[in-house]
Amino acid sequence: MILNSIAVKNWAVLVDGVRLENFDSSINVIHGPNESGKSTLMDAMIRGFFDRHKLKGEDIRQRIPWGTDLGPEVTIDFYNNGNRYQVDKRFVYTSRCELRRYMDEKWGLIADGDNAEERLLEILESSRSSRGLTKSENWGLAQVLWLPQGQIWMPDGGINENSRGKLQSVLGEVILTDVFHCVENEIQGRYEKFFTRVRGEFKSGSEPKELDNQVEKAQERYLELKERWDSLDELNNEIVNLEKTFALSQKELNQAKTELKKSQDILSKAKEQASKREKQEQEYKIRESDWKNINDTIRELKDVKESLIELDKQRMNIEKKIKDYSIEFQKIEEETKNINNKLDETEKQRDIIESEIKTARSRIELVRFKREKQELEERVNQIEELINQQKKLKNELDSIKAPSNKELELLQKLYGKVTEVQTRLEASALHIEFKPSFNIQGFVLKDGQKEPFEMSQSDQKVLEWRAVQSFDMNISGLGRLSITSGSDEAVNLKKVLDNHEKNYQSALDKFGVMDIKELIQRNKDAEDLENEINQLNIQIKALIPKGLNALTKQLKKTESELGVIREEYPELADEDLSNEEAKNKLKKLELNQTEITNQIRKIQKNLALLNTQQRKIESNISNTQQELTRIQTRIESQKERQSKLTSDRLTDAERQDKLKTALDEMDKAKQRLDDLPPVENMNQLENYVKRLDNQVQELNENLKSIKEKLDTNKGQLKGQEGDGLYSRLAEAEEELELLRQKQHSAKVQANSVKLLKDTLSECRQEAMANLVEPISQRVTQIFQRIAGESYDNVTFNDNFAPEYINIRNREENANPDALSYGTKEQLNILIRLTLGQILAEKEEQRQMVVLDDPLAHTDSERQDSMLRILDNYARNLQIIILTCHPEYYSDIGAKSFDMQVLKNNKQER
Amino acid sequence: MVKFVHTSDWQMGMKARHVSENADRVREVRIRAAENVINSARSERAEFILIAGDVFEDNAMDNVLVQSVIDLLSKASCPVYIIPGNHDPLTPNSIYRRPIWERVGSNVHIITTQEPIEIGEVILYPCPLTEKSSREDPTAWIPVEEPNRIRIGVAHGTLMLGEHIEDDAFPIPPDSALQHKLDYLALGHWHSLLRHKTRDGAERTAYSGTHEQTKFSEPQSGQILYVEIEEPGTEPLLREIPTGILRWTQWRREVNSKKDIQNMMQELDKLDAPDSVLLDVVLEGTLDIGGFDFINEEFTPLLQSRFLYHRFNIEKLIPHPTEEELRQVARTGPLRETMDRLYVMANSEDDTNLPKDVTPEVAKWALSCLYRMIKEARG
């Protein structure tokens, strides 16, 4: 559908009416300032198309111009599906509706009143509210193509089914048909009977939930009864087992009692026999003891005799041994004496040789001291000579009076200063040269100092003077020449020079010379002398490193040593042996000494050997004597024992008879003992009887305990007889089973509804996603041009409203409601334009898109883009823009309607 | 000659978990069926009745039930010999030890010991059980003597036939009757009737089975054995007499269309006394969604309303929508997709790959529901 013209009258602010004609098939801009009636015009168009003319309520009365009773009127001329229609509506007063179609170049009424409105609804594929103003959801396609001021996305409550169906059929096929909705509602209704809306759990009071509760209770009841029944069964089994145990224990007790009696008899007999045997054993032991005593005495007596004989033999052997040792000892003692004598003699020879050796060694010393004394005396003489030379040189050095190096250095510095100042003075002082041409004489006064001169013509020389300040020349016979200098520097230098010369002269005076050169020579001479003295010093020190006194002391010491030797060995004093001879003599004596020493050692060794032998024999003698003492003691002891053994005063034969008698008695007692066999395992038997006794007691107690338990259990069992526990258990189990069957059945039904709901919802979502995909693609593509490439994908719900926006490089999708107001505005317009274009393409006719105040929040940059997009869409759409900013659209060639002008024109007419 | 009735496993007061809704009825019927036993014995002029164990389901039964049984037994026209079985063994809490039995008629004999009993020309060898389980042969005690009188054994246990026999359920050798030179061995424990030929080719050993069927898997039950023995060593003559009241019916049917189900319903219409019928229906095959809907809407209510009990299993019934059904849903779109997915789930082998709480059964329900909803929505 597209609009051709609209005329409004008596409608709110448009009280005088306004008519907008010849709308362009592309873009139309209706503009004017606020309150100029733009939105009123749109309101009139909506009411004219979709509201009943008979509407009387407050909603429509609000459109009556203030202070009038004029019924609002609207006439709309439009094209649809190749036909041109005109609808003319008047509201409130003289309400009227007429629908005309333009045919054969004239308007023909095709319906009026309610019929006209019904036809109009069919043409517009819209519906109507039962009461009041028709809501936007009933506007047919206008609800998605017309964008009233301030509306975001689609109308509140979603677009209506007809429009959705229309859009769906245009986009592909009808997905959400009436049948679908009917089924969906039916499923939802059933679902809500069973499940909660939010968590999808069984609803309280729903059959499955109720049955769950009932099953739980029945289960508890059943389990309680089952437990009781099981425990009854258990009690029964326990009684059976106790009875069996009781019978077994009873049997066991009887057996144990019989065994105890039997064992007690055996034990009693065994004890009697054991007592008899014990007595017989005692008798046998006495007999055996008697025999043993006699036998022991005989045997001991025999042993004593033999022992005494043996001991006597030993005693004699030992005594012989002692005698032999004594002889041997005497021999060794004698030999030792001889050797000792020989040792004394040899030692005397050794002492003589040692004395001679001492003399020989003193001789060698004497020779050495003599030579040493001579050497020392020679060195003393040499040194004394060197010292004398040194003294002479020192005297010569003292006589030179030479300056030291330091003094000379000072003098040279003073001389340098004088020379320097003299040079400077000469440069600045008066310099007078005079060459006479005849013989002259006279005097000059140089700075007041008189100096005579005389010169003949033949001298061929020039007279020269230097003065500092004044120069007077008196030439005899000729006159006086006076020259005076004006320079103060020369005077000053002269003073300095005088001062330096004075110091220099004073220094020279100390040495009694006039020239420094002489002092330099003296200094050099003194240095040479000092070198020479030093050289002599080195030679002296080399001869006497420790000084002359030390050398003198050494000489005295050597002389003293010599004196001592000469005093001790006066015989050597006159000898005149060489060192070599003295040494040979000593060597010979030393050889003799060695020989004698070896002899002494040998003798001492023999002596030591003999001493060892002697000590050994002494020890042997001592040991053998001790042994002899011991044997004698033993002999005494044996004799004492023998005396005791024979105290019975029996003879050996008598004693043998007594032994025989005792043996017979013992054999008889043994025979009587053997006739009574020992009782074996008496302890085991006693323990066995004790164990049996305990066992009988335990079994008795056990039986008593079983009996008590049995009585208790039987009592319990008796109490439960006849109360029909099993019948109740059976009933409980049956009830539980019945409830479970019902529960299963209810859950199958409930789950089937849930399955239906889930599957249908899943399929619906998938189908819708497929359906809105082309819209999503187109809107995204254009939206990216406006808002940027980062907006990846705009996804729509089945209400054709954007559901979420995928933003590149972000994990979560953005909510379209969270976009800025301006961006939301742009996206909102794009959705309308896209839907309009798709409809136009599919229906093959232009569609009207109305945008009330569309770019109010869009910045200028995006505005340009939006205008280009509008221009582009205008190829398939009639776009009607209501705005107070016509300048925005001035460049896109839109047809302009100025509300203010139109209103004024109408008023004028 | 001797003639007597052999019965066992009355299982009075048994639990009927599998038919829980009608458990009381099932229990009550067992007493009425026992009356049939007593009456049959009277009408057949039996000389005595042998009950081979398990008169009661458990020893912990209430005295009201015991009194009912006492009253019933006391009405018998002949002596009744009862041995305790493994369900009511002669344990300390044995139901037979209760004082209430002092009021039972003198014709009723509760046998508590393994001792021969002389009944006229017959010697009865009873084998009462004193515990719930045992690996001992209860007939082992019976003395082997040359028969100069008719020798009858009565025991409760498992005849060792086949391989998979529980060996702690009182095993009895198949030729026990021959081994102990018995003319007849009356057995209890198995609920289905069994006549066993011993090596001499005679039917000397038999299970009478329970007098009233206890579950679906006991086809040969609900009867007693009437036994005649001419003289010692002759072959016993056995005759089955029905005593059961309830009919436990099992149907395994293949259905592939709504028509098949309708035919089945016609068969059901022909069943007599449906209020005594317990029905176990298992359906197999491939059925369109409309067929499933028909089952839910008409077949199941029929089962629920008409019969004492029913069990209905469609696990192996595969849903397969027809082209028309699919067209009705939609060629494409979410409804069609939903149906396709439910179809796949309904045909799953197991729950492994299905969402939580979803089984093929749930998916079948969902599929059927969806189909109905769509059909209703389309008007």
Structure description:
The complex is a heterodimer of chains A (909) and B (379). Chain A has 909 residues and is α+β, with helices and mostly antiparallel strands. Chain A has a domain at 2-176 and 766-857 and 871-908: P-loop containing nucleotide triphosphate hydrolases (Rossmann fold), CATH 3.40.50.300. Chain A is built from 19 helices and 19 strands. Chain A has helices at residues 38-50, 58-61, 113-124, 142-145, 161-171, 178-194, 207-400, 405-428, 488-511, 516-543, 548-568, 570-573, 579-645, 652-674, 682-719, 725-787, 821-843, 860-873, 899-908, and strands at 2-9, 18-20, 27-31, 73-80, 83-90, 96-103, 106-112, 146-147, 430-434, 440-446, 449-455, 463-467, 470-475, 479-484, 791-796, 802-807, 847-852, 877-883, 895-898. Chain A has a six-stranded antiparallel sheet. In chain A, strands 8-17-18-3-19 form a five-stranded parallel sheet, sandwiched between helices. Chain A has a four-stranded antiparallel sheet with strand order 11-10-13-14, with no helix packed on it. Chain A is flat. The mean pLDDT of chain A is 87. Chain B is of the alpha/beta class and 379 residues long. Chain B has two domains: 2-242, Metallo-dependent phosphatases (Purple Acid Phosphatase, chain A, domain 2), CATH 3.60.21.10; 247-377, no CATH class. Helix content of chain B is 28%, strand content 25%. Chain B has helices at residues 23-43, 63-74, 176-179, 258-269, 289-306, 323-329, 334-346, 360-377; strands spanning 2-7, 48-51, 80-82, 108-110, 117-119, 122-127, 150-156, 158-159, 171-172, 184-188, 194-197, 203-207, 223-229, 237-242, 247-254, 277-287, 309-319. Chain B has a six-stranded mixed sheet with strand order 4-3-2-1-13-14, covered by helices on one side. In chain B, strand 1 (2-7), helix 1 (23-43) and strand 2 form a beta-alpha-beta unit. In chain B, helix 1 (23-43) runs parallel beside helix 2, helix 4 packs parallel to helix 5 and helix 5 packs across helix 8 (360-377). The longest helix of chain B is centred in the N-terminal third of the chain and has 21 residues, at 23-43. Chain B is elongated. The model of chain B has no long low-confidence stretch (mean pLDDT 92). Chains A and B meet through helix 6, helix 7, helix 15 and helix 16 of A and helix 2, helix 7 and helix 8 of B.
